[in-house]
Amino acid sequence: MPWIHLPDDEETPALERVTRPYRKQGRPVPAVIAIMKPNPKALRGVLAMNNGVTFGGSVLGRRREELIASVTSALNDCFY
């Protein structure tokens, strides 16, 4: 059982707005980012930065960026 309470995606209007794109796609907010759900303003900032610098934010293209992320995660023994 986790000891940090993570609110539901629709618990507050601000959190509902931030998590809406994930719900529209039928997927949860990634666990590594969901930890910021108690602070919707911080969550929004992290998601904006993430979208701006990863997965389509460079000249490498989405496919190469995903490959780099996968290899990096594997080398770091990431479980997510």
Task: Provide keyphrases for this structure.
single chain, 80 residues, mainly alpha, 4 helices, 55% helix, globular
What does this protein look like?
The chain is mainly α. The protein has one domain (13-75). The protein is built from four helices and no strands. The longest helix has 14 residues, at 40-53. It is globular, with a radius of gyration of 14 Å. The model has no long low-confidence stretch (mean pLDDT 85).
Radius of gyration: 14 Å
From N to C, what is the helix and strand string? HHHH
Would you tell me the structural class of the helices and strands? mainly alpha
User: What is the tally of helical segments?
Assistant: 4
The rounded distance between the terminal residues' Cα atoms is 17 Å
Task: Indicate the multimeric state.
Answer: single chain
Unreliable stretches (pLDDT < 50, length at least 5) are none
Say how many strands there are. 0
Quick check: average pLDDT? 85
- Helical content (DSSP H or I, runs of 4+): 55-70%
Largest sheet: none
Anisotropy-based shape: globular
How large is the share of residues in beta strands?
under 5%
- Our count of domains comes out at 1
Layout of secondary structure:
Blueprint: H1 13-24, H2 31-34, H3 40-53, H4 62-75
